[in-house]
């Protein structure tokens, strides 16, 4: 359910960004009456889309992995290394979420001159979507543990 909502939000954000930028170009160069806020909204959307895309990639297990070296280890060692890597990944992403929250706290009092809203709206996507990424990593990790236990009992 979370994954589906993420993809819907990503698609809507992309459509909105393309529409805003196209309208901005049209108004600026055809009507000579620029929409000054369209680029700022597009920047806000691209920040959110970046971290949302990372979360979706964790959900789909599509981040780059280089496991050619690990393949040379015996099966038991590979399983231990994979557990360590997954736990390390969760730790790093959770820490990035923490840093994103600290960054959010520093930007919440700043205001965008064009939009007149808090810069915190731009940076709030970082801690939220890093939390989503941790969720997806843990769900995949737990499902992999369940699958490996099933294959060992068969």
UniProtKB/TrEMBL annotation:
Q: Which InterPro entries match?
A: DctQ, TRAP_DctQ
GO biological process assignments: C4-dicarboxylate transport
Which UniProt keywords are listed? Cell inner membrane, Cell membrane, Membrane, Transmembrane, Transmembrane helix, Transport
Which residue ranges run through the membrane? 9-29, 41-59, 80-102, 114-139
Is RNA-binding there in the keyword field?
no
Top-level taxon of origin: Bacteria
Principal place of residence: membrane
Entry keyword Membrane: yes
Single GO molecular function: transmembrane transporter activity
GO cellular component entries: plasma membrane
Cellular location(s) = Cell inner membrane
Its topology with respect to the membrane?
A: Multi-pass membrane protein
Annotated Tripartite ATP-independent periplasmic transporters DctQ component domain residues: 17-144
Q: Mind telling me which Pfam families this protein's record contains?
A: DctQ
What subunit structure does UniProt give?
A: The complex comprises the extracytoplasmic solute receptor protein and the two transmembrane proteins.
The record's similarity note reads:
Belongs to the TRAP transporter small permease family.
Main function: Part of the tripartite ATP-independent periplasmic (TRAP) transport system.
The record's PANTHER family line, in alphabetical order, gives:
2,3-DIKETO-L-GULONATE TRAP TRANSPORTER SMALL PERMEASE PROTEIN YIAM
UniProt name for this protein = TRAP transporter small permease protein
Q: Which organism is it from?
A: Marinomonas ushuaiensis DSM 15871
